[in-house]
Amino acid sequence: MVWGLIPSWSHEGKGFINARSETLEAKSSFSESFQHRRCLIPADGFFEWRKVGRSKQPHYIQLKDESPYAFAGIWDQWKNRELLIRSCAIITTPANELIKELHDRMPAILHPEAYEAWLDPNTDRATLGKLLAPFPASEMKSHPVSSAVNYVGNDSSDLTQRVDVEVGTNLSLF
């Protein structure tokens, strides 16, 4: 799938990387996918940036036991003449206590026992809403990483390694 949900009715073919849990049903860009096309987006960590003066320090966030997990996601398919694009977006939720130090939002992380309910088209709205609660901070950890993560061309396992905070470097690339 292509990253960035493109609603099937879109004229421009522009996508949305994230979908706020609080507005899934209200926003036409997401409501149909939320009702009929939920998915799991596997991950073993994600990056978020903390302001350090006028710079930003990237942090790597993962589960305490470093196991893989899944973000709650939605998907759609968009067609324009011969071109068919299947796309997805991560659902975000208010940040838990750990992530609040970095950002006010976080991906909606699902516990493995919630995967089946998330994917089941018959799961009621109340249950889905509970699944989108912020993941417990007590089950997560975070550490600073190199600003090399700011460059798309960098792709190495070293990007998740702990580093000292890079104070004084202009890391604000976004």
Summarize this structure as a short list of keywords or feature phrases.
174 residues, mainly beta, hypothetical protein yedk fold, seven-stranded mixed β-sheet
CA radius of gyration is 17 Å
Order of helices and strands: EEHEEEEEHEEHHE
Percent helix range: 10-25%
CATH superfamily: SOS response associated peptidase-like
- Spatial separation of the terminal alpha carbons: 24 Å
The mean pLDDT is 91
- Name of the top-level CATH class: Alpha Beta
How large is the count of helical segments? 4
Residue runs with pLDDT of under 50 for 5 or more positions? 170-174
**CATH architecture name:** Alpha-Beta Complex
Descriptive notes:
It is a single chain. The chain has 174 residues and is mainly beta. The chain has helices at residues 31-36, 97-100, 115-119, 125-131; strands spanning 2-3, 18-20, 38-43, 46-52, 55-63, 69-80, 83-94, 105-107, 109-110, 140-144. The protein has one domain (2-160): Alpha-Beta Complex (hypothetical protein yedk fold). It is 13% helix and 35% strand. The strands form two sheets. Strands 1, 2, 3, 6, 7, 8 and 9 form a seven-stranded mixed β-sheet that branches. The longest helix is centred in the C-terminal third of the chain and has 7 residues, at 125-131. The two termini are 24 Å apart.
